[in-house]
Design a protein that fits this description.
21 strands, nine-stranded mixed β-sheet, alpha/beta, binds ligand LLP, eight-stranded parallel β-barrel
Length: about 450
């Protein structure tokens, strides 16, 4: 856990650079006449109406993100949305309507896709520990592709699929041993990571697949990590996969697909990250030259900056010489800062952005009037790691005011828990000035239901 003395950035970026050519992609949150708003709906109003903590998503931003991604990776590329980033059924339906495929990692996520869209024909199924039940469930669908992660799993799949009328398309997930230079907890494609099979084992996988009944080799898969802030590791990963594609072809197989995984980065603290086109330039040419089609599994870059967490300040404390804001949201609602030391922009919903004299709507007062002082922001959970920020430059904030934690659309609600018996927050989707509840706030009854039933 990061100590309170960790030198995280105190200054907050005023605005985020939009990707080149992304004139339509307005940020999910903007400052207007009634404070910070999501697609025109003031967050203070949403907090009053739906309570806090509250996850709030902009449909316009979600749609714009997906469309920009799909434009950088046009068909025959298949862009699968990584359900783990945010599995809300309404968001899955919105993305399916735009043509997205899905990436799932459990029977539960597969079931969500089936519930939301009725078919798995654009769904890839990854996961290092698929149970026999999950594999059976997958085999009973029209799954687009199963990413097989170990020799043991391949044997299991071959057993279960034997005699299947339409052979199950599988992609062998290979560990490309590429360093994505991201947080060690979200690095997946290095040799010591638990994911995929080693390249040296690929020939063994091919031997098992030779003449298989009910399974066919459709492609290869690698996922190097998440929040990958350079396009270069993708080119390295694809290069390694192509060596194996050639080996497969020499052995008489005809893989058509390369699944390059996910991991495109968000500029959480305003830093430069590659544009979708930069990732495309690293990935597409080599594959297209080999006549291969690309699958992507993208979560964060689709939903991350489309959502935020609205939380109310309960108390201001002065431990030692520090300024501490205690909020009603905690690590139970948004785990990323406590788990990875992740940095999220935080700002009071009623205050204009610092260092800018007017809002996008031209209505803000000069921000300079209210000096910024460093504050820690912590949740109510009985854990010393339950902090959202340390020494963050913030204006004065009164108890009762709300804060917005930006860029919490991905791995926010999906990693929320009921720790300390806090019911999980509500989720709303704002569409064209209208807010729609897409998950009701949990109640105490939700917390105890499964215990009372036994
Ligand atoms: N494909 C596979 C096989 C994955 O394991 C993941 C993410 C993705 C695709 C999607 O990656 P994305 O495009 O969202 O980066 N909880 C962490 C992130 C964990 C990512 C797990 N796997 C966080 O909050 O940063």
């Amino acid at each position: 856990m990061p100590s309170p003395m960790t030198p995280y950035p105190r200054r907050q970026p005023v605005s985020f650079a939009l990707e080149p050519g992304a004139a339509d992609a307005r940020p999910a949150f903007a400052f207007g006449p009634e404070g910070w708003a999501c697609d025109g709906v003031p967050l203070a109003e949403l907090a009053r109406r739906f309570g806090t903590p509250l996850y709030c998503y902009s449909r316009a931003r979600l749609v714009a993100n997906y469309r920009r991604l799909a434009a950088a990776f046009p068909a025959p590329c298949v862009v699968c949305y990584s359900v783990k980033a945010n599995p809300n059924l309404t968001l899955l339906r919105e993305l399916a309507a735009l043509g997205a495929g899905f990436d799932v990692v459990s029977a539960g996520e597969l079931e969500r896709v089936l519930r939301a869209v009725g078919s798995a024909s654009r769904t890839v199924f990854a996961g290092v520990g698929k149970t026999p039940e999950a594999l059976r469930a997958a085999l009973a669908t029209d799954l687009f592709m199963l990413n097989v992660e170990s020799i043991g799993e391949l044997r299991q799949v071959l057993d279960l699929a034997r005699g299947r009328g339409l052979p199950l398309p599988v992609a062998v997930r290979v560990n490309p041993d590429v360093d994505p230079h991201t947080h060690r907890f979200i690095t997946t494609g290095k040799r010591e990571n638990k994911f995929g099979i080693e390249r040296a084992q690929f020939s063994e996988a091919l031997e098992l697949l030779r003449g298989a009944d009910g399974v066919r080799l459709a492609g290869l898969h690698a996922h190097i990590g998440s929040q990958v802030e350079s396009a270069r590791p993708y080119a390295e990963s694809v290069e390694r996969l192509l060596e194996l594609v050639r080996a497969a072809r020499e052995a008489g197989f005809a893989p058509e697909w390369v699944n390059a995984g996910g991991g495109f980065a968000l500029p959480y603290d305003g830093r430069d990250v590659p544009a979708f086109e930069d990732y495309a330039a690293a990935l597409r040419p080599a594959l297209e030259a080999e006549g291969l089609k690309l699958v992507l599994e993208i979560g964060r870059a689709i939903v991350g900056d489309a959502g935020g967490l609205v939380t109310r300040v309960l108390y201001e404390k002065r431990p030692g010489d520090r300024r501490l804001l205690v909020t009603d949201a905690g690590m139970n609602d948004l785990l990323r800062p406590a788990l990875y030391g992740a940095w999220h922009r935080i700002w009071p919903v009623g205050r204009p952005p610092a260092e800018s004299s007017t809002s996008a709507a031209g209505a803000a007062e000069p921000a300079g009037a209210d000096p910024l002082t460093p504050a820690d922001v912590a949740g109510p959970i009985c854990e010393s790691s339950d902090y959202f920020a340390f020494e963050r430059d913030l204006p004065s904030v009164e108890p009762g005011e709300c804060l917005l934690i930006f860029d919490a659309g991905a791995y926010g609600m999906s990693m929320a828990s009921q720790y300390n018996s806090h019911p999980r927050p509500a989720e709303v989707l704002v569409d064209d000035g209208e807010a729609r509840l897409i998950r009701r706030r949990e109640t105490f009854e939700d917390l105890v239901e499964a215990e009372e039933e036994v």
